[in-house]
Fold:
Amino acid sequence: MEWKVLGPRCYGIPLRRTSRRSRPSFCTWTELGHGTFIRGLETTATYDPETEEFVLHSPTLTSYKWWAGGLGKTANHCVVLAQMSTKGKCYGIHPFIVQIRDLETHMPLPGIKVGELGPRMGYNTADNGFLAFDHHRIPRQHMLMKNAQVEKDGTYVKAARHEKLTYGTMVFVRVTLVHDAAFNLAKAVTIAVRYSAVRRQSQPKPDEPEPQILDYPTQQHKLFIHIATSHALVLTGEWLWRTFTAVLADMKKGNVNNLPELHALSSCLKAVSTSDSALGIEECRYACGGHGYMMSSNLPSIYSYVVATRIYEGDYTVLLLQTARFLVKAWEQAQAGKQLTPTVAYFSQALKNGKETWDGSAESIIKSFQRIAAGKVSACVNNIKEHIKSGMSYEDAWLKTTVQLVAAAEAHCRTLICSVYWEEVTRLTASSSPNVKIVMTQLSMIYLVYWALRMTGDLLRYTSISEKDLDDLQRKYEELLTLIRPNAVGLVDAFDIRDEILRSSLGSYDGRVYERLVEETTRTPLNAEPVNQSFHTYLKPLMQGKL
Amino acid sequence: MEWKVLGPRCYGIPLRRTSRRSRPSFCTWTELGHGTFIRGLETTATYDPETEEFVLHSPTLTSYKWWAGGLGKTANHCVVLAQMSTKGKCYGIHPFIVQIRDLETHMPLPGIKVGELGPRMGYNTADNGFLAFDHHRIPRQHMLMKNAQVEKDGTYVKAARHEKLTYGTMVFVRVTLVHDAAFNLAKAVTIAVRYSAVRRQSQPKPDEPEPQILDYPTQQHKLFIHIATSHALVLTGEWLWRTFTAVLADMKKGNVNNLPELHALSSCLKAVSTSDSALGIEECRYACGGHGYMMSSNLPSIYSYVVATRIYEGDYTVLLLQTARFLVKAWEQAQAGKQLTPTVAYFSQALKNGKETWDGSAESIIKSFQRIAAGKVSACVNNIKEHIKSGMSYEDAWLKTTVQLVAAAEAHCRTLICSVYWEEVTRLTASSSPNVKIVMTQLSMIYLVYWALRMTGDLLRYTSISEKDLDDLQRKYEELLTLIRPNAVGLVDAFDIRDEILRSSLGSYDGRVYERLVEETTRTPLNAEPVNQSFHTYLKPLMQGKL
Structure:
């Protein structure tokens, strides 16, 4: 069937990657009191040249290492980031490999306090742990010295390679998180679309049978955008991956010029993709009504998994502000007439033109989004300048502008996703069958129109769009819902996610929703006996007035 | 301290009501296949005049009663809604009181299948259950016959009282849900604001200590709106309560004229308050970073509790469409020059004027919101008319407009909350101390400005607002964040929610966040022993290559 080749697979891109869940992560960076601010970490590693050892120590409660997955009850070794001092001087954060448990007995080594964090919203099988040191000694060689080094006598040798190199891993992880966001949203929307094709409700027309709820435009409005978003994020993730490998190749040759742009890209794409995905998964769950609240729908677990990624490996707001830093610099370069890197090249155009001319095409929507993002960055730059004029320090002026800076970075990121998605669909479907091309184009178009309708205030400010154009856009959106409806089930089937992966009573391929929900009731221990012990212990005495 | 009288308590309104959790609810309405569409329920109750009994039966899997709290393992009796037939004719849904378990042994009675649903996202202590009948007989008198009746010989006597009366209970429950939404959001924002006053992070200025994260405008942006929203919902809930009791008094006199407006009000307020509260609670959780993901923060549980209320007792979308029905009728009445009920009286004004004149005051914002809501309802009415002109049935034209109808109902509801909040604050602080009045006014003002900034597209369409006005509005918003900052902790303390109710490692009154997080690690069974059995069973054999 043609459906089988639809979805991201039709672009020749595998939707699934190894989930992060399967990779044990024993690197302990975060502490109880510090996550974002790495310079603020408190764990110390003090070099003792007498014994050629580092002394690891947790001077405060807030210096406890916190969150590392697999650390709580499993790991024998971990990489610890600590403030390294030698010869009385602190050189900042350095990594150390530390054995924490006896290999034979698994008991924590002397001077080490380690355990599990307690129940979490999700990831409860990951034994996320804490770790504290009481003057725990490790050999000098256990400092990871590929870059910076400490010699036997305690002499510090600075890293020969660029410090920014350490960000490489972080960028890699962020790239995989964009893919994770896409894949999990695809799972959720598969469940919700299939359920909506089985579920029937209400009778909008007398004497006609109850329609599939997927036929309701409000349901289509809740769901179809997330099919499109999954595609958009997969394609943007792939594109980010190619950008990453290109920059990595450059870096290996010693050229780190493109690292700031890559960092800005990976930051905002990680932030926006995980946020879109988490919100989207919840909307898919809402679309399944009460049944989406059952754990057996798997939607609550998918949500609690993805919503964690909104925060770890760089919090949403913090990452967008990092991108904003890059955008403000780029805007100032544009104003100075300098050549800009590809993803912000549109700034130069925005500087020249006033309002963007609106014609409702995909290209026009993308150009309008670029104009909006540039407008927002420009407003931030002006805001900062005004605050400085009124006597503020640059730092204070920046802080005062952060609410708008976050919005500007988000607008830039949305622009980026829209343009990459549209360009990639155009490129990848160039040789597809006409029908595939039509459906893929409808899907990418609804993504653009959806976001345009979410940004009408910005469109009215920064483009020539008229009130009639806005009405046309709304109508176009509703037409696209109708056009996509017949292909909706095919589109989620084309994600080709096996039932064993979906693990959902509502979303299995065979559509046996109600049968599965009833079968699930036989699995809960509460139903193992018709009358639970609790009746005899509590209820009966209560009814007899004995409690 | 003056703080103690701030918050909703300063209006003399108790924030806490009996939570629904504490009221066992054994009414089984919802079935596996039907929730929203009551006419679609499949359980049958057929009268047998021979024995003067009703025969309860579940003819299909989808007719299983589903969700009722306390039913799974606890209840002995429940009220069952079923399609009642007598003398060969079905008269629709009627209520029956049914004994389901033996009072002595607690065993399900013959012909009754009952059990627990299995794990859910929340409410796992509520033993939500399912119930199915196999030709189970109950005495005729067990039909609840206060209204409609079935006589011994099977003659059906129609309800003497107005059918709409049955909606009374539903409205009552919705009113309490608005209060629940406010209270739980107040809990979440108390936790997040207190945590943000303890947590310090980053160093925006060299050589200065790490600031409390509550000092960051992005954090204030995430949190302060939810303090205001809690107040807005409490005051709107109280106002709805007064409206409800007035309409109830009228109804007892036989006057049901105001019931449609009350129904429309309670529908949209239930939908919007539970949605705002759930989204707000998640934002509060985000604001606590990784620690908000710990169950011990209590934020995940508060979220999973409130997000359920978005769906039960009337799904978000369904309820807004019910309000939309009322709004469309009211708009047509306004066009016909008829007198309108109070909450839609603004329609008449909107019909007369073109764009609303903007001056940035609270009154102007409220009038603008009214103009927007009226504009959206008007656009829906026109849209329906156009579809009908092009040959569609009214039902199809309505369906095609539902995406916009939901948005129109939401805009109406927002308008309502804003105007009630502002008017109530003005009224209730008329005799307050000047300082209390200032703070309460700032808080209600930030609510109005926040929503105005979320609706810039609508403001540009329906009011005279200029681009400069929009910039001023953004500046005003940021100024309000700064003004509210010094009072933020006092404002959440004024909610006066005891630590035992908050149950949060992050939000306790004494601010001992890190101490509590570490204490919590001693409570998880995983930490009961330094080495778990799983090491000997799995890990060690794996390490030795034996697994």
In short: The radius of gyration of chain A is 27 Å.
